[in-house]
Amino acid sequence: MKAIPIFCVAIFGVTGCHRSDVEVSGPLPQRGYIWQREWTSAVIDSLRETQRRMNGVVLLGAEINFSAKSPEIAKASIDWEAVQRQTLYCSVALRVAPFAGPFRADDTPARLIVDVAKQLLNDSAAHGVKIEEFQFDFDCAQKNLRAYRTWLSMLRPIVHPARFVITVLPAWLDDANFLPLLRRADGYVLQVHSVPISARGSATLCDLTLAREWIARAGKLGIPFSVALPTYRCAAGYAPDGKLLSVAMDSVQPSWPLGIGFPLRSTRATGAGRRWRQ
């Protein structure tokens, strides 16, 4: 029976160039995000389907939230035995919710991030799963990119020999602190999808025209990168003035008043033979 794809999937394209004037085109390896905290039988079935169709997976390992009075950690209940049986190329991601700082190497947030990263790597190793890549998913405010380097310098030696990769936003590409930030990592994932913060007519998770522009700009930097595209949909609630209220996806029920939510559809991107030219 075909597995039910209940998780969010992203298509990755590893791309890069040695000079800004060189065009590169080729088949793109594809991996899928399994962004689920609770590993049900349906998630495990979907892992098997992903293994058949893609080149690997990126598992959500844990999420950390520093906005409450005390830090909150939500670890995913990963079935490592199922991963070991079914996955050849496995990556794990640590997500940190928006945080305004300060960014230090020896305070409570820093120590907690290090501890959770070590736990994820130890859990995978204990079950015989080799982590090829460790992704640090943090949407840093652009004004804090310089300070954000402290966290990356702290994490990189801890996750090695796994490849250390960070997720980045398109707005960072032209910032003077972006290239110095990348030197603290082994690569990056360019996220070209997001929920619009205001509604003006129709809305989409991914604007393909803008995505191509961002990918072209990233290619000129000469640093290999991956591209994350959405193949999921969600429901977004907007107030009458167009302001975003909240977002609901997976099994989470909307919390806005009846009648003001509408679905945001993704642009589908499938097929192992897709190519980007830059």
Q: Which class do the helix and strand fractions yield?
A: alpha/beta
- The fraction of residues in strands falls at 15-25%
Q: How does the overall form come out from the CA principal axes?
A: globular
Radius of gyration: 19 Å
Strands, total number: 12
The averaged pLDDT comes out at: 78
Number of domains: 1
Walkthrough of the structure:
This protein is an alpha/beta fold. The protein is built from 6 helices and 12 strands. Strands 1, 2, 3, 4, 5, 6, 7, 8 and 9 form a 9-stranded mixed beta sheet that branches. It has a 3-stranded antiparallel beta sheet with strand order 11-10-12, with no helix packed on it. Strand 10 and strand 11 form a beta hairpin. The longest helix is centred in the middle third of the chain and has 19 residues. The N terminus and C terminus are likely disordered.
Task: Give a topology summary.
Blueprint: E1 10-11, E2 32-34, H1 41-53, E3 57-65, E4 72-75, H2 80-86, E5 90-96, H3 108-126, E6 131-138, H4 145-159, E7 163-168, H5 178-182, E8 187-191, H6 208-219, E9 225-230, E10 234-238, E11 244-248, E12 261-264
Parallel strand pairs: 2-3, 3-5, 5-6, 6-7, 7-8, 8-9
Antiparallel strand pairs: 1-9, 3-4, 10-11, 10-12
Helix pairs in contact: 3-4
